[in-house]
Amino acid sequence: MRPSAWTAWAWPGLTAALCLLVFVSLAWGELSLDATRLWAGLRGTDELAATVLWQLRLPRVIAALLVGAALAGAGLTMQAYFRNSLASPDLLGVSSGAAAGAVSAIVWGWTLAGLWVLPSAAIVGAVVATLSVLVLARRGAGSERLLLAGVALNALLGAITSYQLSHGVALWERNAQLLFWLLGGLEDRSWLHVWAALPIAVAAAALWPLGRPMDLLSLGETEAQSLGVDVRRLRRRMLVLATVLAATATAVAGIVGFVGLVVPHGLRLLVGPEHRRLVPMSLLGGGVFVLGCDFVGRMAGGLRLGIVTALVGGPFFLWLLRRRA
Amino acid sequence: MSALTLNAVTVTGRLHDVTLDLPAGALVGIVGPNGAGKSTLLQAAAGLLPLAGGEVRWGGRPVAGIAIMERALRAAWVPQEARFEFGFPVRSVVQQGRYAHGDDETGVDEALLRFDLAALASRPVNQLSGGERQRVMLARAQVTGARLQLWDEPLAPLDPRHGLELLGLAHELKNAGGTVVLSLHDLRVAHCLDRVVVLDGGRLRASGTPGDVLTPGLLREVFGVTARHEPGLTLFL
Questions:
Q1: H or E element in which residue A126 lies
Q2: Distance, in angstroms, between A319 CA and closest chain B CA?
Q3: Which class does domain B2-84+146-236 fall in?
Q4: In this predicted complex, what is the ipTM?
Q5: Which of A310, B76, B127, B177 is within CB 3.0–4.6 Å of B146 for a Cys-Cys bond?
Q6: Is A269 on the interface with B (CB under 8 A)?
Q7: pLDDT tens digits for A149-183?
Q8: Where are the domains of chain A?
Q9: Is the Cβ of A225 closer than 8 Å to some Cβ of chain B?
Q10: What is the least distance, in Å, from the CA of B200 to any CA of chain A?
Protein backbone atom coordinates (compact mmCIF):
# COMPACT_ATOMS: atom_id res chain seq x y z
CA MET A 1 0.00 0.00 0.00
CA ARG A 2 1.18 3.53 -0.70
CA PRO A 3 2.22 5.72 2.26
CA SER A 4 -0.83 7.99 1.89
CA ALA A 5 -3.19 5.06 2.44
CA TRP A 6 -1.68 4.43 5.87
CA THR A 7 -1.46 8.05 6.92
CA ALA A 8 -5.09 8.31 7.95
CA TRP A 9 -4.74 5.26 10.20
CA ALA A 10 -1.39 6.12 11.74
CA TRP A 11 -2.61 8.66 14.32
CA PRO A 12 -5.67 6.72 15.54
CA GLY A 13 -3.63 3.51 15.49
CA LEU A 14 -0.79 4.94 17.55
CA THR A 15 -3.16 6.62 19.99
CA ALA A 16 -5.13 3.41 20.48
CA ALA A 17 -1.89 1.47 21.00
CA LEU A 18 -0.77 4.09 23.52
CA CYS A 19 -4.00 3.89 25.54
CA LEU A 20 -4.02 0.09 25.48
CA LEU A 21 -0.37 -0.20 26.50
CA VAL A 22 -0.68 2.36 29.29
CA PHE A 23 -3.69 0.47 30.61
CA VAL A 24 -2.12 -3.00 30.55
CA SER A 25 1.22 -1.70 31.86
CA LEU A 26 -0.58 -0.20 34.86
CA ALA A 27 -2.92 -3.13 35.40
CA TRP A 28 -0.74 -6.21 34.86
CA GLY A 29 2.19 -7.39 36.89
CA GLU A 30 2.91 -9.34 40.03
CA LEU A 31 -0.15 -7.69 41.50
CA SER A 32 -2.78 -7.66 38.76
CA LEU A 33 -5.47 -5.04 39.08
CA ASP A 34 -8.88 -5.02 37.45
CA ALA A 35 -10.36 -1.78 36.14
CA THR A 36 -12.19 -0.96 39.38
CA ARG A 37 -9.15 -1.52 41.55
CA LEU A 38 -6.97 0.40 39.10
CA TRP A 39 -9.28 3.38 39.38
CA ALA A 40 -9.42 3.08 43.15
CA GLY A 41 -5.63 2.91 43.27
CA LEU A 42 -5.20 5.98 41.08
CA ARG A 43 -7.57 7.93 43.35
CA GLY A 44 -5.76 6.59 46.43
CA THR A 45 -8.72 4.80 48.03
CA ASP A 46 -7.11 1.36 47.71
CA GLU A 47 -3.86 1.69 49.63
CA LEU A 48 -1.94 -1.30 48.24
CA ALA A 49 -2.99 -0.57 44.67
CA ALA A 50 -2.12 3.08 45.16
CA THR A 51 1.40 2.25 46.32
CA VAL A 52 1.99 -0.10 43.40
CA LEU A 53 0.62 2.37 40.89
CA TRP A 54 2.05 5.64 42.16
CA GLN A 55 5.42 4.36 43.37
CA LEU A 56 6.20 1.68 40.78
CA ARG A 57 4.12 1.48 37.65
CA LEU A 58 3.21 5.07 36.82
CA PRO A 59 6.76 6.47 36.94
CA ARG A 60 7.93 3.48 34.93
CA VAL A 61 5.28 4.07 32.26
CA ILE A 62 6.11 7.76 32.01
CA ALA A 63 9.86 7.05 31.91
CA ALA A 64 9.29 4.48 29.14
CA LEU A 65 7.29 6.98 27.07
CA LEU A 66 9.88 9.73 27.53
CA VAL A 67 12.86 7.47 26.78
CA GLY A 68 11.19 6.07 23.66
CA ALA A 69 10.20 9.52 22.41
CA ALA A 70 13.73 10.77 23.00
CA LEU A 71 15.46 7.91 21.19
CA ALA A 72 13.11 8.02 18.20
CA GLY A 73 13.30 11.83 18.04
CA ALA A 74 17.10 11.72 18.19
CA GLY A 75 17.23 9.06 15.46
CA LEU A 76 14.91 11.01 13.18
CA THR A 77 16.88 14.22 13.70
CA MET A 78 20.18 12.50 12.96
CA GLN A 79 18.76 10.93 9.80
CA ALA A 80 17.69 14.35 8.53
CA TYR A 81 20.99 15.89 9.63
CA PHE A 82 23.15 13.34 7.85
CA ARG A 83 20.65 12.90 5.02
CA ASN A 84 20.99 9.20 5.62
CA SER A 85 18.21 6.93 6.79
CA LEU A 86 20.67 4.61 8.56
CA ALA A 87 21.85 7.21 11.07
CA SER A 88 20.75 6.71 14.68
CA PRO A 89 22.19 7.39 18.15
CA ASP A 90 23.26 3.81 18.83
CA LEU A 91 24.75 3.10 15.40
CA LEU A 92 26.70 6.36 15.48
CA GLY A 93 28.04 5.71 18.97
CA VAL A 94 26.22 8.55 20.73
CA SER A 95 24.47 6.14 23.11
CA SER A 96 27.75 4.32 23.84
CA GLY A 97 29.31 7.71 24.50
CA ALA A 98 26.61 8.52 27.03
CA ALA A 99 27.04 5.09 28.64
CA ALA A 100 30.84 5.46 28.78
CA GLY A 101 30.37 8.84 30.49
CA ALA A 102 27.92 7.43 33.01
CA VAL A 103 30.05 4.35 33.70
CA SER A 104 33.16 6.46 34.22
CA ALA A 105 31.27 8.68 36.65
CA ILE A 106 30.20 5.62 38.65
CA VAL A 107 33.68 4.07 38.68
CA TRP A 108 35.40 7.26 39.75
CA GLY A 109 32.85 7.77 42.48
CA TRP A 110 31.60 11.11 41.22
CA THR A 111 28.00 9.99 41.56
CA LEU A 112 28.24 10.56 45.32
CA ALA A 113 28.51 14.31 44.70
CA GLY A 114 24.87 14.60 43.70
CA LEU A 115 22.06 13.20 41.62
CA TRP A 116 22.78 15.50 38.70
CA VAL A 117 26.25 14.03 38.17
CA LEU A 118 25.16 10.87 36.38
CA PRO A 119 22.96 12.55 33.74
CA SER A 120 25.60 15.25 33.28
CA ALA A 121 28.34 12.66 32.74
CA ALA A 122 26.09 10.87 30.22
CA ILE A 123 25.53 14.13 28.35
CA VAL A 124 29.26 14.92 28.30
CA GLY A 125 29.96 11.44 26.92
CA ALA A 126 27.28 11.85 24.27
CA VAL A 127 28.60 15.26 23.23
CA VAL A 128 32.15 13.90 22.86
CA ALA A 129 30.82 11.01 20.77
CA THR A 130 28.71 13.34 18.60
CA LEU A 131 31.66 15.62 17.91
CA SER A 132 33.80 12.60 17.02
CA VAL A 133 31.21 11.37 14.51
CA LEU A 134 31.06 14.83 12.98
CA VAL A 135 34.80 14.82 12.47
CA LEU A 136 34.93 11.23 11.21
CA ALA A 137 32.01 11.46 8.80
CA ARG A 138 31.18 14.69 7.06
CA ARG A 139 27.60 15.71 6.45
CA GLY A 140 25.93 14.04 3.53
CA ALA A 141 28.46 11.25 3.86
CA GLY A 142 27.60 7.95 2.25
CA SER A 143 26.10 5.18 4.37
CA GLU A 144 29.36 3.30 4.30
CA ARG A 145 31.50 6.09 5.73
CA LEU A 146 28.92 6.98 8.34
CA LEU A 147 28.45 3.41 9.53
CA LEU A 148 32.19 2.74 9.58
CA ALA A 149 32.68 5.84 11.72
CA GLY A 150 29.96 4.50 14.03
CA VAL A 151 31.55 1.05 14.20
CA ALA A 152 34.93 2.55 15.07
CA LEU A 153 33.48 4.81 17.73
CA ASN A 154 31.32 2.06 19.24
CA ALA A 155 34.38 -0.22 19.47
CA LEU A 156 36.45 2.49 21.15
CA LEU A 157 33.78 3.47 23.66
CA GLY A 158 32.98 -0.19 24.29
CA ALA A 159 36.64 -0.74 25.15
CA ILE A 160 36.54 2.11 27.67
CA THR A 161 33.42 0.66 29.27
CA SER A 162 34.82 -2.89 29.31
CA TYR A 163 38.03 -1.63 30.92
CA GLN A 164 36.02 0.00 33.69
CA LEU A 165 34.13 -3.26 34.19
CA SER A 166 37.18 -5.54 34.23
CA HIS A 167 39.25 -3.18 36.34
CA GLY A 168 37.44 -3.74 39.58
CA VAL A 169 35.91 -7.20 39.40
CA ALA A 170 35.77 -7.44 43.18
CA LEU A 171 33.19 -4.69 43.49
CA TRP A 172 30.07 -6.67 42.65
CA GLU A 173 27.70 -4.02 43.74
CA ARG A 174 29.33 -1.40 41.61
CA ASN A 175 29.49 -3.70 38.63
CA ALA A 176 25.80 -4.45 38.92
CA GLN A 177 25.26 -0.73 38.71
CA LEU A 178 27.53 -0.57 35.66
CA LEU A 179 25.74 -3.43 33.96
CA PHE A 180 22.55 -1.44 34.25
CA TRP A 181 23.99 1.03 31.75
CA LEU A 182 25.07 -1.59 29.33
CA LEU A 183 21.81 -3.55 29.28
CA GLY A 184 19.33 -0.72 29.26
CA GLY A 185 16.24 -1.14 31.40
CA LEU A 186 13.50 0.62 33.27
CA GLU A 187 13.45 -1.43 36.49
CA ASP A 188 12.84 0.59 39.65
CA ARG A 189 12.50 3.87 37.80
CA SER A 190 11.10 6.38 40.27
CA TRP A 191 9.70 9.90 40.05
CA LEU A 192 13.28 11.05 40.42
CA HIS A 193 14.08 9.51 37.07
CA VAL A 194 10.99 11.03 35.54
CA TRP A 195 12.20 14.45 36.68
CA ALA A 196 15.66 13.69 35.33
CA ALA A 197 14.02 12.92 31.98
CA LEU A 198 12.39 16.35 31.86
CA PRO A 199 14.94 17.76 29.36
CA ILE A 200 13.40 15.26 26.93
CA ALA A 201 10.06 17.03 27.03
CA VAL A 202 11.75 20.40 26.51
CA ALA A 203 13.90 19.16 23.62
CA ALA A 204 10.93 17.39 22.02
CA ALA A 205 8.91 20.60 22.16
CA ALA A 206 11.81 22.49 20.55
CA LEU A 207 12.08 19.84 17.84
CA TRP A 208 8.42 20.13 16.85
CA PRO A 209 8.59 23.38 14.80
CA LEU A 210 11.76 22.27 13.00
CA GLY A 211 9.82 19.74 10.91
CA ARG A 212 9.41 21.85 7.79
CA PRO A 213 12.99 23.18 7.56
CA MET A 214 14.15 19.60 8.22
CA ASP A 215 12.25 18.55 5.07
CA LEU A 216 14.26 21.03 3.04
CA LEU A 217 17.55 20.17 4.71
CA SER A 218 17.09 16.44 4.16
CA LEU A 219 17.02 17.05 0.41
CA GLY A 220 20.30 18.98 0.32
CA GLU A 221 21.89 21.72 2.37
CA THR A 222 22.78 24.13 -0.45
CA GLU A 223 19.30 23.76 -1.89
CA ALA A 224 17.76 24.39 1.54
CA GLN A 225 19.90 27.49 2.01
CA SER A 226 18.83 28.83 -1.40
CA LEU A 227 15.17 28.37 -0.43
CA GLY A 228 15.51 30.45 2.73
CA VAL A 229 16.59 28.01 5.45
CA ASP A 230 19.35 29.29 7.73
CA VAL A 231 21.17 25.98 7.40
CA ARG A 232 23.96 26.67 9.87
CA ARG A 233 21.59 27.67 12.62
CA LEU A 234 19.18 24.82 11.89
CA ARG A 235 21.96 22.23 11.91
CA ARG A 236 23.38 23.54 15.17
CA ARG A 237 19.96 23.30 16.77
CA MET A 238 19.30 19.83 15.44
CA LEU A 239 22.63 18.60 16.72
CA VAL A 240 22.06 20.03 20.20
CA LEU A 241 18.54 18.61 20.39
CA ALA A 242 19.53 15.16 19.11
CA THR A 243 22.40 14.99 21.60
CA VAL A 244 20.27 16.14 24.53
CA LEU A 245 17.55 13.63 23.62
CA ALA A 246 19.90 10.66 23.18
CA ALA A 247 22.00 11.52 26.22
CA THR A 248 19.06 12.07 28.56
CA ALA A 249 17.39 8.86 27.44
CA THR A 250 20.62 6.95 28.06
CA ALA A 251 21.08 8.63 31.43
CA VAL A 252 17.61 7.44 32.51
CA ALA A 253 17.52 3.96 30.97
CA GLY A 254 21.03 3.01 29.88
CA ILE A 255 21.78 1.83 26.36
CA VAL A 256 18.54 0.95 24.62
CA GLY A 257 19.39 -0.02 21.09
CA PHE A 258 17.60 0.18 17.75
CA VAL A 259 14.69 2.43 18.82
CA GLY A 260 16.24 5.44 17.08
CA LEU A 261 16.65 3.45 13.88
CA VAL A 262 13.54 1.28 13.80
CA VAL A 263 10.84 3.75 14.81
CA PRO A 264 11.54 6.67 12.42
CA HIS A 265 12.33 4.28 9.61
CA GLY A 266 9.22 2.20 10.08
CA LEU A 267 7.03 5.29 10.35
CA ARG A 268 8.63 6.78 7.24
CA LEU A 269 7.63 3.66 5.34
CA LEU A 270 4.09 4.01 6.66
CA VAL A 271 3.34 7.73 6.40
CA GLY A 272 6.02 9.12 4.07
CA PRO A 273 9.08 11.24 4.78
CA GLU A 274 7.53 14.62 5.60
CA HIS A 275 8.95 15.75 8.92
CA ARG A 276 6.02 17.90 9.95
CA ARG A 277 4.16 14.62 10.33
CA LEU A 278 7.15 12.45 11.12
CA VAL A 279 8.46 14.48 14.09
CA PRO A 280 5.34 14.25 16.29
CA MET A 281 4.65 10.74 15.08
CA SER A 282 8.17 9.50 15.90
CA LEU A 283 7.95 11.04 19.37
CA LEU A 284 4.67 9.23 20.02
CA GLY A 285 5.68 6.09 18.15
CA GLY A 286 8.98 5.83 20.02
CA GLY A 287 7.15 6.09 23.33
CA VAL A 288 4.65 3.42 22.31
CA PHE A 289 7.41 1.12 21.03
CA VAL A 290 9.50 1.34 24.21
CA LEU A 291 6.46 1.00 26.47
CA GLY A 292 5.42 -2.07 24.46
CA CYS A 293 8.91 -3.61 24.59
CA ASP A 294 9.14 -2.93 28.33
CA PHE A 295 5.76 -4.57 28.85
CA VAL A 296 6.78 -7.62 26.80
CA GLY A 297 10.01 -7.85 28.81
CA ARG A 298 8.09 -7.69 32.10
CA MET A 299 5.65 -10.36 30.95
CA ALA A 300 8.54 -12.55 29.81
CA GLY A 301 9.79 -12.66 33.36
CA GLY A 302 11.99 -9.62 33.62
CA LEU A 303 13.72 -9.54 30.25
CA ARG A 304 15.66 -6.25 30.11
CA LEU A 305 14.39 -3.51 27.83
CA GLY A 306 17.65 -3.28 25.86
CA ILE A 307 17.40 -7.00 25.11
CA VAL A 308 13.80 -6.80 23.91
CA THR A 309 14.38 -3.77 21.64
CA ALA A 310 17.45 -5.50 20.17
CA LEU A 311 15.49 -8.71 19.64
CA VAL A 312 12.85 -6.76 17.72
CA GLY A 313 15.17 -4.20 16.14
CA GLY A 314 17.98 -6.50 15.01
CA PRO A 315 15.91 -8.54 12.56
CA PHE A 316 14.23 -5.34 11.35
CA PHE A 317 17.60 -3.78 10.61
CA LEU A 318 18.76 -6.85 8.70
CA TRP A 319 15.56 -6.80 6.68
CA LEU A 320 16.16 -3.12 5.97
CA LEU A 321 19.68 -3.79 4.69
CA ARG A 322 18.40 -6.58 2.47
CA ARG A 323 15.74 -4.30 1.08
CA ARG A 324 18.23 -1.56 0.29
CA ALA A 325 20.71 -3.89 -1.35
CA MET B 1 19.44 48.55 -14.16
CA SER B 2 21.77 45.69 -13.45
CA ALA B 3 20.12 42.64 -11.94
CA LEU B 4 23.29 40.73 -11.09
CA THR B 5 26.75 42.13 -10.58
CA LEU B 6 29.89 40.16 -9.86
CA ASN B 7 32.75 42.31 -8.71
CA ALA B 8 36.17 40.61 -8.94
CA VAL B 9 34.64 37.44 -7.48
CA THR B 10 37.17 34.80 -6.43
CA VAL B 11 36.43 31.34 -5.03
CA THR B 12 39.57 29.55 -3.88
CA GLY B 13 40.81 27.11 -6.50
CA ARG B 14 37.75 27.40 -8.71
CA LEU B 15 37.03 30.97 -9.81
CA HIS B 16 39.48 33.83 -10.29
CA ASP B 17 38.64 37.49 -10.37
CA VAL B 18 35.39 37.31 -12.36
CA THR B 19 33.70 40.64 -13.04
CA LEU B 20 30.32 40.60 -14.71
CA ASP B 21 27.31 42.87 -14.96
CA LEU B 22 24.00 41.43 -16.15
CA PRO B 23 20.97 43.62 -16.84
CA ALA B 24 17.41 42.91 -15.81
CA GLY B 25 15.31 41.35 -18.55
CA ALA B 26 18.03 39.17 -20.03
CA LEU B 27 18.53 35.55 -20.92
CA VAL B 28 22.16 34.69 -20.27
CA GLY B 29 24.10 31.53 -21.08
CA ILE B 30 27.29 30.45 -19.37
CA VAL B 31 29.49 28.21 -21.48
CA GLY B 32 32.89 26.68 -21.02
CA PRO B 33 34.64 23.30 -21.06
CA ASN B 34 34.22 20.84 -18.17
CA GLY B 35 35.76 22.25 -15.00
CA ALA B 36 35.68 25.83 -16.29
CA GLY B 37 33.83 27.04 -13.19
CA LYS B 38 30.28 27.34 -14.52
CA SER B 39 28.63 25.70 -11.51
CA THR B 40 30.83 27.64 -9.11
CA LEU B 41 29.92 30.90 -10.82
CA LEU B 42 26.20 30.14 -10.50
CA GLN B 43 26.50 29.17 -6.84
CA ALA B 44 28.56 32.26 -6.09
CA ALA B 45 26.00 34.41 -7.92
CA ALA B 46 23.26 32.80 -5.80
CA GLY B 47 25.12 33.81 -2.64
CA LEU B 48 25.63 30.18 -1.65
CA LEU B 49 29.43 30.06 -1.54
CA PRO B 50 31.91 31.78 0.74
CA LEU B 51 33.98 34.11 -1.44
CA ALA B 52 37.74 34.42 -1.09
CA GLY B 53 37.45 37.87 -2.60
CA GLY B 54 35.12 40.22 -4.40
CA GLU B 55 31.44 40.86 -4.03
CA VAL B 56 28.09 39.79 -5.51
CA ARG B 57 25.27 42.32 -5.83
CA TRP B 58 21.63 41.86 -6.75
CA GLY B 59 19.99 45.00 -8.13
CA GLY B 60 22.87 46.98 -6.66
CA ARG B 61 22.56 45.53 -3.14
CA PRO B 62 25.42 43.44 -1.75
CA VAL B 63 24.11 39.90 -1.24
CA ALA B 64 26.18 39.50 1.93
CA GLY B 65 23.92 42.11 3.55
CA ILE B 66 20.62 40.43 2.59
CA ALA B 67 19.02 38.07 5.12
CA ILE B 68 18.80 34.41 4.05
CA MET B 69 14.99 34.45 4.02
CA GLU B 70 14.88 37.52 1.79
CA ARG B 71 17.50 36.05 -0.55
CA ALA B 72 15.11 33.17 -1.25
CA LEU B 73 12.49 35.67 -2.40
CA ARG B 74 14.86 37.34 -4.84
CA ALA B 75 16.93 34.54 -6.38
CA ALA B 76 16.38 30.86 -7.13
CA TRP B 77 19.13 28.34 -7.82
CA VAL B 78 18.74 24.93 -9.46
CA PRO B 79 21.58 22.43 -8.94
CA GLN B 80 23.04 20.45 -11.80
CA GLU B 81 22.04 17.13 -10.33
CA ALA B 82 19.60 16.51 -7.52
CA ARG B 83 20.12 13.52 -5.28
CA PHE B 84 17.26 12.49 -3.03
CA GLU B 85 17.74 10.13 -0.11
CA PHE B 86 14.13 10.35 1.01
CA GLY B 87 11.02 9.70 -1.05
CA PHE B 88 9.14 12.97 -0.68
CA PRO B 89 6.18 13.25 -3.05
CA VAL B 90 6.82 15.46 -6.08
CA ARG B 91 4.21 18.02 -5.07
CA SER B 92 5.73 18.43 -1.61
CA VAL B 93 9.19 19.07 -3.07
CA VAL B 94 7.82 21.67 -5.50
CA GLN B 95 5.98 23.35 -2.66
CA GLN B 96 9.27 23.74 -0.77
CA GLY B 97 9.84 26.66 -3.14
CA ARG B 98 7.23 28.51 -1.09
CA TYR B 99 9.13 28.08 2.19
CA ALA B 100 10.22 31.71 2.34
CA HIS B 101 6.65 32.81 1.53
CA GLY B 102 5.26 31.23 4.68
CA ASP B 103 4.72 27.83 3.08
CA ASP B 104 1.59 28.76 1.12
CA GLU B 105 0.67 26.94 -2.09
CA THR B 106 0.61 29.82 -4.55
CA GLY B 107 1.51 28.73 -8.05
CA VAL B 108 2.28 25.13 -7.10
CA ASP B 109 -0.42 23.53 -9.25
CA GLU B 110 0.39 25.83 -12.18
CA ALA B 111 4.07 24.90 -11.95
CA LEU B 112 3.21 21.19 -11.85
CA LEU B 113 1.20 21.61 -15.06
CA ARG B 114 3.80 23.81 -16.65
CA PHE B 115 6.55 21.26 -16.10
CA ASP B 116 4.38 18.33 -17.06
CA LEU B 117 4.48 16.93 -13.52
CA ALA B 118 0.77 16.87 -12.67
CA ALA B 119 0.55 13.12 -13.30
CA LEU B 120 3.60 12.52 -11.10
CA ALA B 121 2.48 14.80 -8.25
CA SER B 122 2.22 12.06 -5.62
CA ARG B 123 5.15 9.92 -6.84
CA PRO B 124 8.20 9.64 -4.53
CA VAL B 125 10.85 11.92 -5.90
CA ASN B 126 13.68 9.39 -5.46
CA GLN B 127 12.02 7.05 -7.94
CA LEU B 128 11.99 9.53 -10.83
CA SER B 129 14.25 9.58 -13.87
CA GLY B 130 16.99 12.21 -14.20
CA GLY B 131 14.94 14.41 -16.50
CA GLU B 132 11.86 14.21 -14.30
CA ARG B 133 13.92 15.13 -11.25
CA GLN B 134 15.34 18.10 -13.09
CA ARG B 135 11.81 19.28 -13.90
CA VAL B 136 10.88 18.98 -10.22
CA MET B 137 13.82 21.19 -9.25
CA LEU B 138 12.96 23.73 -11.97
CA ALA B 139 9.31 23.78 -10.91
CA ARG B 140 10.44 24.41 -7.32
CA ALA B 141 12.60 27.33 -8.49
CA GLN B 142 9.64 28.60 -10.50
CA VAL B 143 7.23 28.76 -7.56
CA THR B 144 9.65 30.89 -5.54
CA GLY B 145 8.63 33.74 -7.85
CA ALA B 146 12.22 35.00 -7.71
CA ARG B 147 13.19 37.42 -10.49
CA LEU B 148 16.75 36.13 -10.68
CA GLN B 149 16.81 32.51 -11.82
CA LEU B 150 20.13 30.64 -11.80
CA TRP B 151 19.96 27.22 -13.45
CA ASP B 152 22.91 24.84 -13.59
CA GLU B 153 22.80 22.85 -16.85
CA PRO B 154 19.01 22.56 -16.85
CA LEU B 155 18.85 21.29 -20.43
CA ALA B 156 21.28 18.38 -20.13
CA PRO B 157 18.85 15.72 -18.82
CA LEU B 158 15.72 17.04 -20.57
CA ASP B 159 14.21 15.52 -23.71
CA PRO B 160 13.79 17.86 -26.73
CA ARG B 161 10.18 18.81 -25.99
CA HIS B 162 10.76 19.67 -22.33
CA GLY B 163 14.00 21.44 -23.25
CA LEU B 164 12.20 23.68 -25.73
CA GLU B 165 9.40 24.33 -23.25
CA LEU B 166 11.97 25.37 -20.68
CA LEU B 167 13.54 27.84 -23.10
CA GLY B 168 10.05 29.18 -23.79
CA LEU B 169 9.51 29.70 -20.07
CA ALA B 170 12.89 31.40 -19.77
CA HIS B 171 11.83 33.83 -22.50
CA GLU B 172 8.59 34.55 -20.65
CA LEU B 173 10.45 35.26 -17.44
CA LYS B 174 12.83 37.55 -19.28
CA ASN B 175 10.00 39.44 -20.97
CA ALA B 176 8.44 39.96 -17.56
CA GLY B 177 11.65 41.71 -16.48
CA GLY B 178 13.37 38.75 -14.88
CA THR B 179 16.92 37.58 -15.38
CA VAL B 180 17.63 33.98 -16.27
CA VAL B 181 21.20 32.72 -16.12
CA LEU B 182 21.80 29.15 -17.23
CA SER B 183 24.89 27.11 -17.90
CA LEU B 184 24.93 24.87 -20.96
CA HIS B 185 27.14 22.87 -23.28
CA ASP B 186 25.12 23.10 -26.47
CA LEU B 187 26.63 26.07 -28.31
CA ARG B 188 23.82 26.00 -30.87
CA VAL B 189 21.36 26.79 -28.10
CA ALA B 190 23.72 29.48 -26.81
CA HIS B 191 23.17 31.30 -30.09
CA CYS B 192 19.48 31.76 -29.20
CA LEU B 193 20.26 33.64 -25.98
CA ASP B 194 20.68 37.38 -25.41
CA ARG B 195 24.09 37.10 -23.92
CA VAL B 196 26.84 34.55 -23.55
CA VAL B 197 29.49 34.38 -20.85
CA VAL B 198 32.52 32.22 -21.65
CA LEU B 199 34.53 30.74 -18.79
CA ASP B 200 37.80 28.89 -19.10
CA GLY B 201 39.92 27.55 -16.26
CA GLY B 202 37.99 29.57 -13.67
CA ARG B 203 38.54 32.85 -15.54
CA LEU B 204 36.18 34.99 -17.57
CA ARG B 205 37.17 34.74 -21.23
CA ALA B 206 34.46 36.77 -22.91
CA SER B 207 31.00 38.18 -22.37
CA GLY B 208 28.58 39.70 -24.85
CA THR B 209 26.06 38.82 -27.57
CA PRO B 210 26.46 35.29 -29.00
CA GLY B 211 27.44 36.65 -32.40
CA ASP B 212 30.24 38.76 -30.95
CA VAL B 213 31.52 36.19 -28.49
CA LEU B 214 31.27 32.79 -30.14
CA THR B 215 33.81 33.48 -32.89
CA PRO B 216 35.67 30.65 -34.64
CA GLY B 217 38.88 31.85 -33.01
CA LEU B 218 37.48 31.68 -29.46
CA LEU B 219 35.80 28.34 -30.10
CA ARG B 220 39.09 26.86 -31.26
CA GLU B 221 41.03 28.30 -28.33
CA VAL B 222 38.58 27.52 -25.52
CA PHE B 223 36.79 24.40 -26.72
CA GLY B 224 39.26 23.02 -29.23
CA VAL B 225 36.61 22.77 -31.95
CA THR B 226 36.69 24.18 -35.45
CA ALA B 227 33.53 25.99 -36.47
CA ARG B 228 32.30 27.29 -39.77
CA HIS B 229 30.01 30.24 -39.41
CA GLU B 230 27.21 31.06 -41.84
CA PRO B 231 24.41 33.57 -41.37
CA GLY B 232 22.00 32.10 -38.85
CA LEU B 233 23.82 28.81 -38.70
CA THR B 234 26.93 27.49 -37.02
CA LEU B 235 28.33 24.15 -38.05
CA PHE B 236 30.86 22.33 -35.92
CA LEU B 237 33.34 20.19 -37.76
A1: helix A117-136
A2: 18
A3: alpha beta
A4: 0.89
A5: B76
A6: no
A7: 888 888 888 888 888 777 765 567 777 777 777 78
A8: 72-324
A9: yes
A10: 24
